[in-house]
């Protein structure tokens, strides 16, 4: 991982859409999906998991085969590595549900997960589930048997919940520090529990809006570079100009500020990120908490390892340079 010259583009475990294309929209079309994927892959992301969030059953039935077919295109071999299913097995609790539509949240159901995987042609690679949901343990075991990596998030889980799910086979925390209420009990909350659980690695959103620098610093120290991966949590609004938009996946009005902050004014919460992995990695690099090799680990190697893959699984061109003096990544010049 050391040495000068270009490094691989980044691997993103959570992309909800790009440039107006919503992967959870009931109106998602095959060519629009492929176009959004091509576009993102030219902006420093070497490979990623398209993410489908909590939605109506008919949308799962429609979109999972559609996304799976896109993953099967030869042009996306080694670039689209699987599907991330974030929900519907999450918490309905205010704050914990985040920007997901609570009416579509469901209790853990291994049979339904098997149906999802059939619709997806076996391409679901990552599942986010609430650790404190009744029946989550059985769901985690089912997912692991199916070869799906399980992450825990969008919950109010405590230490015992996380340890129980880790023993069942869960290995990750989804966007630690987010997917939780703005106000939580001082000591007993899912953020402290997640930081303290050595059995679980974590993904974090380093877009400059989801987490303050102090929280990122603590997470880097608590988890260490080997147990951390950056994700963009890119919204369908990412890549668009500031303004007001409707996100079809959860039928919500969101506002993209000139600063890049994307939020739902009605719910008073963030609504995903407007950033790419390149932008997230540059924010993290600029903080100075991690060296070059550690940055490459959290942006490329760890995301792959967390879903059971190695560097050879990515077949995209090397497209990233790193300037250690400026602490900044840039697209490689042709």
Query: What is the CATH domain class?
Result: Alpha Beta
Principal-axis shape: globular
Whole-number count of domains? 1
The main β sheet shows up as:
8 strands, parallel
Structural class: alpha/beta
Question: What's the mean pLDDT score?
Answer: 94
SSE ordering: EEEHEHEHEHEHEHEHEEEEEHHEE
CATH architectural type: Alpha-Beta Barrel
Strand content: 15-25%
Roughly how many Å apart are the termini?
22 Å
Cross-sheet strand order for the largest sheet:
1-4-5-6-7-8-9-10
Runs in which pLDDT lies below 50 for 5 or more consecutive residues are 1-5
Radius of gyration: 18 Å
Structure characterization notes:
The protein is α/β, with parallel strands linked by helices. It has a single domain (10-331), classed as TIM Barrel, CATH 3.20.20. Helix content is 30%, strand content 20%. An eight-stranded parallel beta sheet has the order 1-4-5-6-7-8-9-10. The longest helix has 15 residues, at 57-71.
């Amino acid at each position: 991982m050391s040495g000068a010259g270009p490094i691989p583009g980044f691997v993103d475990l959570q992309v909800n859409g790009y440039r107006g294309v919503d992967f959870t929209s009931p109106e998602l079309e095959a060519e629009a999906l492929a176009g959004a994927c091509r576009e993102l892959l030219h902006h420093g992301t070497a490979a990623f998991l398209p993410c489908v969030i909590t939605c109506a059953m008919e949308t799962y039935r429609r979109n999972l085969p559609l996304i799976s077919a896109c993953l099967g295109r030869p042009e996306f071999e080694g670039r689209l590595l699987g599907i991330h299913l974030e929900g519907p097995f999450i918490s309905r609790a205010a704050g914990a549900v985040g920007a997901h539509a609570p009416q579509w949240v469901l209790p853990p159901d291994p049979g339904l997960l098997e149906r999802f995987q059939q619709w997806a042609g076996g391409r679901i690679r990552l599942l986010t589930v609430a650790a404190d949901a009744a029946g989550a343990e059985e769901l985690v075991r089912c997912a692991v048997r199916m070869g799906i990596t399980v992450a825990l998030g969008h919950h109010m889980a405590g230490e015992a919940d996380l340890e129980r799910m880790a023993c069942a086979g869960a290995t990750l925390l989804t966007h630690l520090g987010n997917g939780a209420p703005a106000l939580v009990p001082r000591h007993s909350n899912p953020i402290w529990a997640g930081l303290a659980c050595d059995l679980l690695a974590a993904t974090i959103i380093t877009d400059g809006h989801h987490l303050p620098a102090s929280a990122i610093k603590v997470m880097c120290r608590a988890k260490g570079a080997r147990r951390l991966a950056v994700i963009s949590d890119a919204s369908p609004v990412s890549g668009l100009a500031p303004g007001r938009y409707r996100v079809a996946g959860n039928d919500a009005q969101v506002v993209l500020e000139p600063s890049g902050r994307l939020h739902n004014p009605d719910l008073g919460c963030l609504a995903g990120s407007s950033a790419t992995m390149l932008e997230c990695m540059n924010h993290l690099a600029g903080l100075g908490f991690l060296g070059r090799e550690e940055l490459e680990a959290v942006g490329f190697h760890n995301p792959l390892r967390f879903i059971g893959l190695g560097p050879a699984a990515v077949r995209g061109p090397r497209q990233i340079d790193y300037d250690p003096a400026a602490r900044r990544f840039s697209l490689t010049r042709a």
